[in-house]
């Protein structure tokens, strides 16, 4: 062992950068090395490399890891996979029954996929590459698919003709309408059975409707069993909710009860409607979109940007929080603890983490900016400790094991795009290519998506294709069938992880599971090797 004393103040400041005016003499104990080959400055530099300290010229903050860099450590367990509880908090007020969200992308989430995912226990975010009116209508479609009690049913007046009722049926897709006066007093109901064989369509609905004396009516808050019993006794499929003065308050249909029985794990609000989210931008002109979505009944608003740690996004969050104090708001995307903390201080209910990990995203390559996802999630969770604000891991999820790793890093749930693109419920037509079925999938930073309206997410204002700088690509993914089959496989893998790590709940997995870092050989060993796959597994596709 040797001891080297640096008494030269200039040398200290140059290579160790202590506070100005620090006269301290540094005494460094080094492992044995041939000191006659090195100057004192060179020895000190090598010593810092040996310790893994930050190199002053590169300003490297730290080393960062992603999904393939780590594995979870198995532990003693009394947890069987089928007993694991997959429930988790999206925000303090919204609980998911599975820790999965669908991305607000125009080739992933519209009403059909949002409905299917909510029925499985997750939540979908309607993308914003559409008009304000259409986005609000997509939200309404989800909310009314399983209504429990339809709080604001479409009605007709006693003077409405049967022809007008038929026209309403063609527009709305259903045939039952309560008949109310101008004072909203219930006088009857007109259904498809009432008009099926009527030839004179100019008659008013009062001529053939079921009058109020024969209606099945219930009080607000009536128990489900009581409602079903009344509907069974009268052999009807609709019950009307009224107050003491017989004013119409809502409507209950037997179809909603049947849907609830088929999907007991569905993610619903207090009124029994499926939950849904919607994305908006941070730029000017989004106020009207936010107002329309809130009026449509959106459960959670996503203020979405490629760089959430920017003043425009923070200001949009502050303004929205001031206008809607009780609205659940998610902000993103960020990749650092400082970014997560800034969003929390601005007033978000949850923070979305991920810059550049998605399969169709080129942000890290085009801009050179990003943080590998495991480290980004961990840093955000650490920064938000004690605030009660959950973290969402957005992007980079290829396998069910990645969902488990993201949650073990501290995320409350994951947001996926590519995993759900190509399902039956995702937007777009099925295309045949070289004998196989595909659906299109593109990043919201691709030229096509940006020209349709997502350019403000990337702080670009000119929608002309030759003026845009894309941060994503357009491609195709293999057709995958029904979404519920994908969810079954992914949640099955997550349950198996919880059994292997001894974690009975998502919160246990978030806080108790331990990681090991692995080498390139370790990840190669983890994947299928030394064999030719002859039959694809539903939950393992290389390159997927």
Number of strands: 23
CATH topology of the largest domain: TIM Barrel
Instruction: Assign the CATH class of the largest domain.
Output: Alpha Beta
Largest sheet report: 8 strands, parallel, barrel
What structural class results from the helix and strand content? Answer: alpha/beta
Radius of gyration: 29 Å
Report mean pLDDT, rounded to a whole number.
Answer: 86
Termini separation comes to 54 Å
- Helix-residue proportion: 25-40%
- Work out the count of structural domains: 3
Strands of the biggest beta sheet: in what spatial order? Answer: 6-7-14-15-16-17-18-19
Q: Give the overall shape, derived from the CA principal axes.
A: elongated
Report on this model:
With 544 residues, this protein is an alpha/beta fold. The strands form seven sheets. Strands 6-7-14-15-16-17-18-19 form an eight-stranded parallel barrel, surrounded by seven helices. Strands 8-9-10 form a three-stranded antiparallel β-sheet. Strand 6, helix 3 and strand 7 (123-126) form a beta-alpha-beta unit. Helix 3 runs parallel beside helix 4. The longest helix has 19 residues, at 483-501. The protein starts with a strand and ends in an 18-residue tail after the last helix.
Question: What's the short version?
Answer:
With 544 residues, the protein is an alpha/beta fold.
Keyword list:
single chain; TIM Barrel; CBS-domain; CBS_dom_sf; 3 domains; oxidoreductase; 544 residues; 23 strands; transmembrane helix; EC 1.1.1.205; disordered N terminus; eight-stranded parallel barrel; alpha/beta
